[in-house]
Amino acid sequence: MESFHKYTNVIAFLFLFFSSPLTLALQVGFYSKTCPNAETIVQQVVQQRFAADKSVAAALLRMHFHDCFVRGCDASILIDSTSTNQAEKASGANGSVREFALIDQIKAKLEQSCPQTVSCADIITLATRDSVALVGGPKYNVPTGRRDGLISKSNEVNVPGPSSTVSQAQQSFKIKGLTINDMVVLLGGHTVGITHCSFISDRLTNFQGTGAPDPTMNKTLLTQLKGTCGANPSADPSIFLDQKTPFVFDNEYYNQLKSNNGVLQIDQELAVDPLSSTLVNNMAANNAGFVQNFAKAMVKMGGIQVLQGTAGEIRTNCRVFNKN
Q1: Which DSSP symbol is given to 148?
Q2: What angle do CA 142, 144, 148 make, to 5 degrees?
Q3: Rounded to whole angstroms, how far apart are CA atoms 67 and 76?
């Protein structure tokens, strides 16, 4: 009888453990009771910003990606550096990440409506989803319930760069639980992306130390980019990664890769590397398939190493950790 009671106690413990908030998965509508207007507030502020600057979608996609690839999707990328800590923002890889003020604006409105309820990590995820829809991308449900991280260090930032090879990038994605298919689809977000001349200067003039441009780049594109980047190099002009439909979420990006019009080295290599070339061809031939796969991959990426339950915190200011 004693062993029976021990057995039932174990069962009761396991039931409580696995049904506790600490182990609940992210869920669509997480704030439906605690902050019913949360997603509407995010959507409205993003829409206002988009009306002023359509490149906000590219900016948020980049922010979301860079956040999730360092310590998971925990809004650690939003923390400002202090005299005692160089935060993720201070890393060179995050130098071009922007729209922090937009996240601040959303957070301020949410704090007015539902104080200390909606995490900064969920704000990034929701805002990114809404901005993608505004440029004609998929409208998909985003599971929420993330909490904000308590650590942000610049020396921990290690994300795939524009000159990464496909195999190098694949390893970075694999570590985060993402497949080569996820990688090719997520890089398709470059269909509304931008870069700066400083990130492609070697491809234009001195590719891999050869003293000549990258021979794989389409000659017309090469001439065009040389003109843009050479006109005012000190200003480091921005360049659309999709030269045809830069503000439309479509599969044109993949079609351009097939004609050697990839702006970033990693983009162009997707079309020729055996690991990814078939996937590029598939995405180029099927816009609906790309859009559907992109939504799935975004939800998957949004679940990387998330904090839940009582882990982390809900920041009142996305730029600083709460004072305990």
Answers
A1: B
A2: 130
A3: 6
Closest to 247 in 3D by CA, of 285, 207, 288, 193: 193
Which pLDDT score is estimated for 24?
A: 54
Annotated binding site: 67, 70, 72, 74, 76, 88, 160, 190-191, 242, 245, 250
Tell me the whole-structure pTM to 2 decimals: 0.90
pLDDT of residue 25: 79
Residue 66 among the catalytic residues: yes
Cα Rg of the chain, angstroms: 22
**Among 142, 104, 113, residue whose Cα is nearest residue 125:** 142
Q: What pLDDT is stored for residue 12 in this prediction?
A: 39
Residues of the chain short of pLDDT 70, as ranges, are 1-24, 324
Query: What string of DSSP letters covers 5-31?
Result: HHHHHHHHHHHHHHTSGGGPPPBTTTT
Known binding-site positions for heme b:
190
Binding-site residue numbers for Ca(2+) are 67, 70, 72, 74, 76, 88, 191, 242, 245, 250
In 228-295, where do the E strands start and end?
238-240
- Taking alpha carbons only, the member of 310, 270, 86 closest to residue 185 is 270
**Structural domains of the chain, with CATH:** 24-156 (1.10.520.10), 166-301 (1.10.420.10)
